[in-house]
Amino acid sequence: MRRFFLIALLVALAVPARATVLLPIELRELVSTSSAIVHGRVVDARAAWVDGRRAIETFLTIDVTEYMKGSLGSTVTVRVPGGQIGRYRTIVVGAPAFGEGDEVVLFLRSYGGNLTIVGISQGAFRVVADASGRRLVTTPVVMGQSADANQAVVRGDATRRPLVIDAFRDMVRRLVTGGAAQ
């Protein structure tokens, strides 16, 4: 009887496990899923309590340089899971972290009245300058180099290289208009 009571107590106290599962998304699908694709600079990153103080999320304000798809105005605010307020921190594995001044290309969609990044980190690209000053778009870890639907997605692929921003923009715009990316 004691064993039965102990097992019943453990079952009653069990908490369901929750996890984030990211399936690799190809560029073609990323473009078609997005309602807007913005290139700009983070001008504000503000963490706030959400869901009745159960979690912290970060709200990024982006000063838009250009739209590759859609148009939402000269600035947009994007909701990103996770963040820190004082000693409290919410960590969401796979969520990108940006700070003021970061140059980004974001694939966005509206979800629950807020703009979010498609595929958590898969729709977030950083733009960085190389030693010669060229601005390069770094691809997320799980994404391949092209929009080829038959290309295998390989984590840690040594052939994956950053793309010059102009080549990336051209590839995205071809996909937006229904053309093939190369």
Would you mind describing this structure in some detail?
This protein is an alpha+beta fold and 182 residues long. The chain has a single domain, classed as Beta Barrel (OB fold (Dihydrolipoamide Acetyltransferase, E2P)), CATH 2.40.50. Helices cover 17% and strands 37% of the residues. It has 3 helices and 10 strands; from the N terminus they run H-H-E-E-E-E-E-E-E-E-E-E-H. It has helices at 2-13, 27-33, 165-176, and strands at 36-50, 55-69, 75-81, 83-85, 88-90, 103-111, 114-117, 124-129, 135-138, 163-164. The strands form 2 sheets. It has a 5-stranded mixed β-barrel with strand order 1-2-3-7-6. A two-stranded antiparallel sheet has the order 4-5. A hairpin with a 5-residue loop joins strand 8 and strand 9. The longest helix has 12 residues, at 2-13. The radius of gyration is 20 Å and the shape is elongated. Mean pLDDT is 84; it is low at 142-150.
